[in-house]
Amino acid sequence: MVEENLSFRNGNPGAVQFGNFINYYQFNSPEKRISLLPKDIWSESIEENRKWEILDIGCNTGDLTVALYDFFTNILGITDCKVIGIDIDPQLIQRAIEKNKSNNISFNCVDIMDSMNYQTIIKYLKDNDLERFDLVTCFSITMWIHLNHGDLGLKSFLNNVSKISNFLIIEPQPWKCYKAAVKRMKLSDYIFPEFKKLAIQQNVEDEIEKIILDECNLVKLKESQKTDWGRKILFFKRKN
């Protein structure tokens, strides 16, 4: 990943190629996301004295990662829980590390779309005698993967994260968000090369759900009401 590709363009903090906004949680608070997480879908999988491992993909500066840890430990009562936050942007990860006060939360700079980086995640699971993470979360990152890697990249991402998940949370951006992102970047003299090639467009949220259900060996448990940003959070679980 070329470092300059991660910077915002022409002095506009909203013009970022990978969704790595420098002030993201100032306008999209973790608390609102957490308030939409159900409490009734996890009970059968929460076993006494069993450690839970959670992977938060696209964690930015880690505010939501920390809130997820608090939810599963303080609200659901999982006494042994570890959360790993990963993001493509090393500067955001450094800020997350500097703010982190828990030994049970860690942050790493990882590009989930890079095959070698993905293999480091697989290695982590093997080294810790884990088949999968108990939960993988993907909040508002599918659009950025789609815009930068195309339809095939999106499908590959969904298949790869499903392989390492017992539970999966996806918050896909609707098509109107794509158009807004493309417009912001165009004003800053950048065109997403994959955008005009995308076959998955207007119904992107439904298509993401369909891919997960048809190809990824997961079942849908629930979806949230729409967030303030007009997005719904989808909850999936591995088939028995």
Automatic annotation (TrEMBL):
Question: What is the protein's name according to its record?
Answer: RNA methyltransferase
Q: Which family does it belong to?
A: Belongs to the methyltransferase superfamily.
Which Gene3D superfamilies does UniProt cross-reference here?
Answer: Vaccinia Virus protein VP39
Alphabetical UniProt keywords: Methyltransferase, S-adenosyl-L-methionine, Transferase
The primary gene name is: LOC115876354
Q: Tell me the Gene Ontology biological-process terms attached to this UniProt entry.
A: methylation; negative regulation of pre-miRNA processing
Which SUPFAM superfamilies does the record match to this protein? S-adenosyl-L-methionine-dependent methyltransferases
Q: What are the record's GO terms for cellular component? A: cytoplasm
Supply the PANTHER family for this chain: BICOID-INTERACTING PROTEIN RELATED (PTHR12315), RNA 5'-MONOPHOSPHATE METHYLTRANSFERASE (PTHR12315:SF1)
Q: Which residues form the Bin3-type SAM domain?
A: 31-240
One Gene Ontology molecular-function label: O-methyltransferase activity
Name the species this protein comes from: Sitophilus oryzae (Rice weevil)
Which parts of the chain are coiled coil? Answer: none
Looking up Pfam families in the UniProt record yields:
Bin3, Methyltransf_32
Superkingdom of the organism of origin: Eukaryota
User: What's its EC?
Assistant: 2.1.1.-
